[in-house]
Design a protein that fits this description.
The protein is α+β, with helices and mostly antiparallel strands. It contains 15 helices and 30 strands. An eight-stranded mixed beta sheet has the order 3-9-10-16-13-12-11-29, with helices on both faces. A five-stranded mixed beta sheet has the order 20-17-21-22-25, sandwiched between helices. A four-stranded mixed beta sheet has the order 26-27-30-28.
Length: 519
RNA sequence: CGGAGUGUGGCUCAGUCUGGUAGAGCACCGCGUUCGGGACGCGGGGGUCGCAGGUUCAAAUCCUGCCACUCCGACCA
């Protein structure tokens, strides 16, 4: 891969991948750090992307039979005591509310000692416990099942180190929670939503992923099985972009979620949960961004086409603006990717060249430059953000207004597909399947002679057979991998018929697993 | 919380070693010339140099403590 991304065209400096990432977040006007530790301010353009994610994913969640609802931000502390693995998994990162009033003592404002809560409230890190509690009241009979709900919410996890979009102490997400009569139905639901995430990620975000099952040590606290979609970033690292958990009867047992089956027996439900978060935006940045800034897939671009009018403080300006407004209207009549085209005429009092580059940095898929000559000649001059440059020159093309409008759906679809294909090719080219032993893998990922720190980061993943060890044996493997900064990502859903020997133990393999560095 | 690094206008940084009136480029404001293109000239606004102490006639610069951020670990959607 060895792709040397730089921020040179954005800020005038070359630098490392993390610097590049931060530069894009800033230059594309997506978000900024807030005065609140670890939490981000999502700016309008960034939030617009999130709204597009919400709209397109929400439709899919509803099409698969789920309904939205809303549960409280605060969860009574005692709720977490019920499921041992769950509390252990989250205990170290919980924000806790202990008081309900402030008081000024010696001029210093602080919690009022007299206003201590009898039972502290936890700011939800996830909502299994409080939703499970509701399920236990909602579900009495097999006729009540399945219960299929989702909520769009914010959650808080007190992370040690934060990074905009990728890991923030507060983040936005959706969390689906379902209850079923049988283990088979629970498993089916878990896999169905994993597939929704895979399809969504690939067709809407244009971000290819590998869907698979997480190894035992990477499971969600309290889950029987965890599945994930893993995306490959341009530095070769894996990003866990979504998870779907088969919770079995763990939470049902802990929270008394039971129903009477048709035979009259009182039995526990099988529950699931699944979620994706604002982390997806970080994935989009690191999948599609380039040296000029962000490149947004048209399906999630808040504005798919931006018109920059060439205004010169002259009388003909009015004509250009009028033509621009008419063009926005005309594009609004065009249906592409199933929806009217989202277009904007940027009339901000700013130099045209500035506006153009701002939209390049923000990643608007198509940027039209509309000048008096275009208006007179009925032509549209535009550039595609996905193929911005021809050498060092900006690749601008010109079509008649009619042809442009007629070809717009195909153009946006082509950009969407092109971004996907580019990322898919990168993913495919950077999974090594020819590494057979742990030592070979260590040599591959480790710092070799002549490799600098930077180069070792661009390794991609290894896919290899393994014997699916468990318990202490798995723990030992995890520790060995940790020394190489590697983790087990997932065992992909599509598996071959036969397997070579296990990369770790040499025993016969039972499935293939992905190994890589991760965010 | 462990290791390393960095804190100087909105951004990127110089100045710190060797204490002596706070700088540059970009961004911003004004005027003008330009302008199918990240233009140029002139003028201008904006910084208690992360915070708090200390040393000194004098501190961005030296000393002590603290804080924040970045990277690498641990943790993690």
């Amino acid at each position: 891969m060895q792709r040397a991304l730089s921020v040179s065209r954005m800020t005038g400096n070359t630098s490392t991948f993390p610097d590049w990432y931060q530069a894009i977040v800033r230059e594309a006007d997506l978000a900024e750090v807030s005065p609140t530790r670890g939490a981000m301010i999502i700016k309008p353009w960034g939030y617009g992307v999130w709204e597009r994610i919400q709209q397109t994913l929400d439709r899919r969640i509803k099409e698969t039979g789920h309904e939205n609802c809303y549960f409280p931000l605060f969860i009574p502390l005692s709720f977490f005591a019920k499921e041992a693995d769950h509390v252990e998994g989250f205990a170290k990162e919980m924000a806790v509310v202990t008081h309900h009033r402030l008081k000024s003592v010696d001029g210093k404002l602080g919690p009022d000692p007299d206003a201590r809560l009898e039972e502290p409230l936890v700011v939800r890190p996830t909502s299994e416990t409080i939703i499970g509690d509701a399920f236990s009241r909602w579900i009495k009979s097999h006729r009540d099942l399945p219960v299929l709900i989702n909520q769009w919410a914010n959650v808080v996890r007190w992370e040690m180190r934060t990074r905009l979009f990728l890991r923030t102490s507060e983040f936005l997400w959706q969390e689906g929670h379902t209850a079923h009569a049988t283990a088979e139905e629970g498993r089916e639901e878990t896999l169905k939503m994993l597939e929704v995430y895979r399809e969504f990620s690939e067709t809407v975000l244009a971000m290819p992923v590998v869907a698979g099952e997480k190894p035992e040590n990477e499971r969600f606290p309290g889950a029987d099985n965890t599945f994930s979609i893993e995306a490959m970033m341009q530095d070769g690292k894996a990003l866990q972009a979504g998870t779907s958990h088969d919770l079995g009867t763990h939470f049902a047992e802990a929270q008394n979620i039971r129903f009477q089956n048709s035979a009259g027996e009182l039995v526990h439900c099988h529950t699931t949960s699944w979620g994706v978060s604002t982390r997806l935006i970080g994935g989009v940045i690191m999948t599609h961004g380039d040296d000029d800034g962000l490149r947004l897939p048209p399906a999630i671009a808040p504005r798919q086409v931006v018109i920059v009018p060439m205004l010169r403080d002259k009388p003909e300006d009015a004509e250009v603006v009028a033509a621009g407004e008419a063009l926005v209207k005309a594009m609004g009549q065009v249906i592409t990717l199933g929806e009217p085209v989202r277009a904007l005429l940027d009339t901000k009092a700013q130099k045209s060249a500035e506006k153009r580059w701002n939209w390049v940095r923000r990643g608007a898929p198509v940027i039209i430059e509309l000048g008096p000559r275009d208006v007179a000649g009925g032509t549209i001059s535009f550039m595609r953000r996905d193929r911005l440059r021809d050498g060092d020159k900006v690749a601008s093309q010109s079509l008649s207004r009619e042809d442009f409008l007629a070809g717009l759906p195909a153009l946006l679809a082509d950009i969407q597909q092109g971004l996907y294909d580019e990322a898919k090719a990168r993913l495919g080219a950077n999974i090594r399947t020819d590494i057979a032993t742990f030592d070979d893998m260590a040599a591959y990922f480790g710092a070799e002679a002549g490799d600098d720190e930077e180069a070792t980061a661009f390794r991609g993943w290894v896919r290899a057979p393994w014997a699916r060890p468990t318990g202490e044996e798995l723990e030992a493997i995890e520790q060995k991998l940790k020394a190489l900064r590697l983790t087990l990502r997932n065992a992909p859903m599509d598996q071959p018929a036969a397997f070579g020997p296990c990369l770790f133990t040499g025993r016969p393999g039972v499935e293939e697993i992905l190994i890589g560095r991760a965010y």
